[in-house]
Amino acid sequence: MTVVSAAIAAAFALTGCAPAGYNSSDYGAQPASNAVEAGATSEPTPGATPEATPGAEPEEAEEAEEGAEGPELSDDEVTSELKAATVKRMGSTVQNQDGFVLYRFDKDKISPEVVSNCNDDCEKVWPPALINKGEKPKVEGVDAELVGTVERKDGTLQLTLDKWPLYTYIGDKEPGQWKGQNVAGTWFVITPEGKKNLECLPAISKPVAPPKDGGKAGDSPEGSGGSDYSY
After folding, report:
1. How many CA atoms lie within 13 A of 95 on its CB side?
2. What is the pLDDT of residue 75?
């Protein structure tokens, strides 16, 4: 009888922590207190403009500066809002203008400078929250002083929160979902303060596979992982 009661209690715990759309067998809840928050001690120096080459003509220097601005993004490529929102079971989150939950990546570097280490196939699965140079997102429930940018290797600018680069997850099919929580043991829902949200910590899972060439984001079977991706 004791064993049966324990099994029932465990089932409720799993269901209460698993993201919407997942069966309890897909995730195993772990106490949030077992996880440790990563911290930073140094101020970042993102997007520093290279110094002009000695002896360069002013016109050449101006052209070089213009070339460093990166590509101009369309409205649907830009993250125009960062808003705090509470989600059932997960609690505090930050969402974009479309209501999709934002994440942070443990393999990114924030000291001594901010660096996004999610590129190529990784960024197809975890699209970075981008913005055009000179623009700022509208913030709601998020401290504007914590919002910054980092230049990616392709020249685009990615939004950061308390120095951490921000991403969405193609495994989230609807606004408010948080199926990227603890994927690969390195991806976590970010709080309005830029910390990991450890309110609910499912067991480590694989990310969905990147979309095939010509396919739409998230074409891979939901929750399948597809392969042993390291991101």
Report:
1. 19
2. 85
